[in-house]
Write a structure and sequence with these properties.
It is built from 13 helices and four strands. The chain is mostly helical and about 260 residues long. About 30% of the residues are buried.
């Protein structure tokens, strides 16, 4: 009986899904697991097993005392080691492969976020497509990490949510797509965070800048900011915030 060996493309697609899923949702009944299984012609159980194999390679889960299934994980280790320190290549390559399996291409799949660069050509367009696709996948990962809710307010309307970079995209290329550098915030608080009006202390509690507190007594301050003052961020499902990133934000952005 012939053995149906896993292909490189299949392994990359499962790693792509692993990054997007909270650890507790990697079972064979998860609709996203079922969908990928159908796309690559595997059983949901087989995909779920590969996801748990990838979990056994994840140092972040090990730090939290969560251990995946290491049996059969050697093949996963190859791809983990190849890609995990090159997320830009992983996310774009895996999304390109996924689009092909879905019978389309990455530009058609993401046409909504690429419309305004439709007239761009050559290397400039290729670069912009990669950036925007990767930013979109980063957003998927960060939102899933907070159960699709604003980490400060619990707002769960996707159109109002932003994957806020702690260290901005332009400041650190190596951490651009690191989910530990992202917080799910609704639009108002994303903007306040980005502009340094608010930040978070070592306990992940909201702190206000002097600029923001200068508006004390105004209706919008009382209605929209007082309710989150000193409030703790929601617990993440998989990727804890890197405290060093928050320290950078407090030193370089907050109250500036």
């Amino acid at each position: 009986m012939a053995v149906n060996l896993w292909t490189r493309n299949e392994m990359i697609l499962v790693l792509n899904l692993y990054l997007k899923l909270p650890f507790g949702k990697m079972d064979s009944r998860n609709p996203e697991v079922v969908k990928l299984a159908q796309i690559i012609g595997r059983t949901p159980n087989a995909v779920a097993l590969r996801l748990v194999n990838y979990a056994s390679q994840d140092p972040l889960l090990k730090q939290r005392g969560i251990v995946g299934m290491s049996h059969g994980g050697n093949k996963c280790r190859e791809y983990w080691d190849e890609f995990i320190h090159d997320r830009e290549r992983l996310l774009f390559e895996s999304e390109t492969i996924l689009a092909q399996y879905e019978g389309t291409n990455v530009e058609q799949k993401y046409d909504r976020i690429l419309k305004d660069i439709s007239s761009t050509v050559g290397d400039s367009k290729i670069g912009q497509v990669k950036i925007r696709v990767n930013q979109n996948v980063f957003r998927q990962i960060v939102l899933a990490n907070y159960d699709g809710k604003c980490a400060s307010t619990g707002i769960d309307i996707p159109e109002l949510l932003v994957a806020s970079h702690i260290i901005p995209w332009s400041e650190n290329k190596n951490e651009r797509l690191n989910p530990r550098n992202g917080i799910c915030l609704s639009s108002l608080y994303d903007k306040a965070f980005d502009q340094g009006f608010v930040s978070f202390n070592d306990e992940n509690k909201v702190i206000f800048s002097a600029r923001l507190q200068a508006n004390m007594g105004k209706d919008y301050y009382e209605n929209f900011f007082i309710p989150i003052k000193e409030k703790s961020l929601a617990t993440t499902r998989k990727y804890d915030i890197n405290p060093a990133f928050l320290e950078w934000h407090r030193n370089c952005v907050f109250n500036k």
